[in-house]
Amino acid sequence: MAKTLEKVDVVTVGVGWSGGIIGAECAKAGMKVLGLERGNERSTEDFLMVHDEFRYAIRYDLMQDLSKETITFRNTRKMRALPMRHMGSFLLGEGLGGAGTHWNGMTYRFLPYDFQIKSMTEKKYGKDKLSKDYLLKDWGITYDELEPYFDKFEKTAGISGEDTNPFWGKRSSDYPNPPMKKTPLLKKFEKASNSLGYDPFMVPSANLSQSYENPDGETIAACQYCGFCERFGCEYGAKTSPEITVVPTARKTGNYDVRFHANVIEVLKQGNKVTGVKYIDRQTGEEFIQPADVVVLTSYMMNNAKLLMVSNIGEQYNPETGKGTLGKNYCYQIEPGTTGFFDEQMNTFMGAGSLGMTIDNFNGDNFDHSNLDFIHGASISLTQTGNRPILTNPVPPDVPVWGAEFKKSSIENFTRTLSVFGQGASMPHKENFMSLDPKYKDVYGVPLLQLTYNFTEQDRNLHKFITDKTAEVMKEMGAKTVMAGNPITDYDIVPYQSTHNTGGTIMGANPEDSVVNNYLQHWDAENLFVVGAGNFNHNSGYNPTGTVGALAYRAAEGIIKYSKAGGSLV
């Protein structure tokens, strides 16, 4: 029998960026907040060791244990869904900081077009630009309304950047830190982009260009350009993450605590309110009920959706009828790109997770789509994240992928290869969704989340267009061999592509077509908030974290307002 614990004002399920922001803001407002984290506690000191590519980048030491919980996957409803037994297409974080510990640090704001994509697309191109199978939807909030929260997140994280992109939304203030170093590799991309008439700018980075103290008094160190960011924690405290910013801020108030090894299995609901959550202690196997005045789901977007499904909160999306919103509008991204092989040797082994340059000339609706068979676009970048020897073995297309010739070419090209890639937007389709698997369960007997997803014609057409643009830039950069990526066919859950999953708990202006309102307050339970990339109605041509951070700050504001007045916030 589950033991009932002492009630708190706010409980968050997961302590990554979203949970840390909610915890810090609510604790500063005087509320008693408890964060439930199913993983371990960790800090900068845990990474004071030799950089171990095998442990972190190959064996995924910071990631979710798939022997305990995973997802099942299929391309279509006619296929049998099978469990993902090894990390592949995306990497699910676990432990204090969540994916915010092992991320690269690229911190963009979604474009104004993203938040009003349906109305803006229809106004410019008509209602038939995409077929009705695509579930385009405005977000119920505009860029201008969200801008103050973007600004707050960037100041908390100390983002290093430059306001030189002519295409993005207006800013209320400049980045808190100057951009990172413009290396010779980035200058090569900049020169080529400029010569083609494009507008390159430095990637907004949570790898800091200088030491910085944020508004909460937390200090973030300057990046050392060691090249071990993605899949790694930063031993310098120079890659902004929740455990060196918002979590310490929350703890300093005396109103915040984190309970580790706490795996939440259900949100408890009575009437139009939730009363708390039930969780299992992963070390002892004991069950507990944690009562709370406000429950906030701040775990990875897939787990947020799963918890609502197993708790029977909201109506599951049905692709046959189109009814229901929970699990709807799942989106991923496409990653078109081109590899170039050069004669000269370059310091490709050095870098940082978000050291790079980007162009937005083919992102959003920054170019005319009238005669194109897709909407939106992609950011196109060259990044210097630090090539590592186990995962990086580039060879030209005429070289065998094994044997002595492969070894020789791999060593030769390790420091002579660059890639220009796009992060392509993903539009929601009626056949791409999340649900509960009817057969497979996790180690606690809870059904696994089932993902039904495949690339669409929109994806394939955009992928081809952006691939051609990346090849154009690479040729201008002077590569002796230019190897453009292959066209995409069906989505496969291997190999790694990106961890940029979105949708399933989408936001909006009314309960008929969304799960939460624009404060991320659940339509069916006024004291339940759901925060993360699951709130996105589609995926953009950027990394999602900056927009997640902004939404988390808005949700925190909503939670504080609700705690004082109650009721719906819209």
TrEMBL record:
The keyword Flavoprotein applies. One of its GO terms (molecular function) is gluconate 2-dehydrogenase (acceptor) activity. The keyword RNA-binding does not apply. Keywords: FAD, Flavoprotein, Oxidoreductase. Residues 220-329 form the Glucose-methanol-choline oxidoreductase N-terminal domain. Residues 428-552 form the Glucose-methanol-choline oxidoreductase C-terminal domain. InterPro entries: FAD/NAD-bd_sf (IPR036188), GMC_OxRdtase_N (IPR000172), GMC_OxRtase_C (IPR007867). It is an enzyme of class 1 (oxidoreductase). Pfam families: GMC_oxred_C, GMC_oxred_N. Belongs to the GMC oxidoreductase family. This is Gluconate 2-dehydrogenase flavoprotein. It comes from the Bacteria.
